């Protein structure tokens, strides 16, 4: 098969790396790709958001499958364009992707289909949102404030005080930090528990659940600082027992795909559920329409399965059974970000060195995925934001964590930053038992 992967981040690097291992993969190409992906696949400079151009390109290249990494092209209808051209696409159409591009839609779907989630209210008037927050806070209820639309994982505020919550409404609705994506806000009750990411592959009828992961969304160690797209992840997660996965399937994943089916939406791709486990019960915080980044960099390396066959069966509506894919080992991934990532300034154009040293440490037990790098005057440099993701794997989660941190510590660029505590809940637990 000839496969086109769309996207340019660490998730897409991991996808290309994994798809290339499939015996059925003849040729793999990527648009636009990045310098790391360029070592595994031919890259073509078409932006992921340029859907019409991408669909034409897929036709021209006569690809057998397109696997879409990020949400933006899906929200822009890339899968619909490809379907019209008769090219199987792993990733839902615009209507299915709405579960990610509109929190309003997602929350209403949860309400309609009885999916457990935090109680919420929607506002397009900042003063009404603020009144609601004041009332909630006065009643002793903490809240979370979320922009309705796509904000690259940065449109959610988990305030520690009423003032911070009111300020979040101002940032989203008055200062319009996220533009139109912040025209509406969701204010929802804050849940306390353990976060869990469950990613299921679905053709709209059957569900194949991937190994569970935990993502670390706060920028700083100890889950402090601003929200980011994700600073690291590990998989599998011991609290996600078979029993819990069965409950998540029954109460969260199945009702969601039933909701799509009832609305006549063919959903083919990844259904990502961001969950909070509160006293053993799963609640949905959000749905995404694609693999998580950096969850993909932790989950794909622990799957011993031909994912190309799985993606193709999904894209063509031919999944045959519901099942759970178990992890063959544990993996920890650590994101190395640019100075200022999550705050204001991000310093691009910093020369990256010592990748070979990290690779020597990891050997066959890990990989350095490129998240946001570029070539400049024949030198590999940072391009702002999350720059690299270092993944290590092992039978022992503790060893995988140590290896990923050790390798990440060798990579140099000015202002580099990574969280040294990815996996801390489980690592500390395992070390002390
Ligand atoms: P979301 O994009 O909706 O998943 O939100 C991003 C992050 O915000 C989540 O991973 C949680 O860490 C946090 N969050 C979102 N909703 C809630 C909630 N209702 N209670 C507590 N934390 C939340
Ligand atoms: N890491 C969270 C996400 O990809 O949405």
List the helices and strands and how they pair.
Blueprint: E1 2-7, H1 10-20, E2 27-32, E3 42-43, H2 51-60, E4 65-68, H3 71-75, H4 78-84, E5 89-90, H5 94-101, H6 103-112, E6 120-123, H7 126-138, E7 143-147, E8 156-157, H8 162-174, E9 185-189, E10 194-202, E11 207-209, E12 214-215, E13 218-220, E14 224-227, E15 232-235, H9 242-262, E16 269-278, E17 281-288, H10 295-299, H11 307-315, E18 323-324, E19 330-337, H12 355-362, E20 366-370, E21 373-376, E22 379-382, E23 386-394, H13 397-410, H14 424-431
Parallel strand pairs: 1-2, 1-4, 2-3, 4-5, 11-18
Antiparallel strand pairs: 6-9, 7-8, 7-9, 10-11, 10-16, 12-15, 13-14, 15-19, 16-17, 19-23, 20-23, 21-22
Helix pairs in contact: 5-6, 7-8, 12-13
The chain binds adenosine monophosphate and glycine.
Pfam family, one: GARS_A
Keywords: ATP-binding, Ligase, Manganese, Metal-binding, Nucleotide-binding, Purine biosynthesis
Domain ATP-grasp: 107-316
CATH topology-level name of the largest domain: D-amino Acid Aminotransferase, Chain A, domain 1
Total strands: 23
- The CATH superfamily of the largest domain bears the name ATP-grasp fold, B domain
* Poorly predicted sequence stretches spanning 5 or more consecutive residues: none
Which CATH C-level class of the largest domain is it? Alpha Beta
Compute the number of helices. Answer: 14
Quaternary structure of the protein = single chain
Radius of gyration: 21 Å
Strand order of the largest sheet: 3-2-1-4-5
Q: Describe the sheet with the most strands.
A: 5 strands, parallel
Terminal-residue CA separation: 47 Å
Q: For the residues shown, what is the average pLDDT?
A: 95
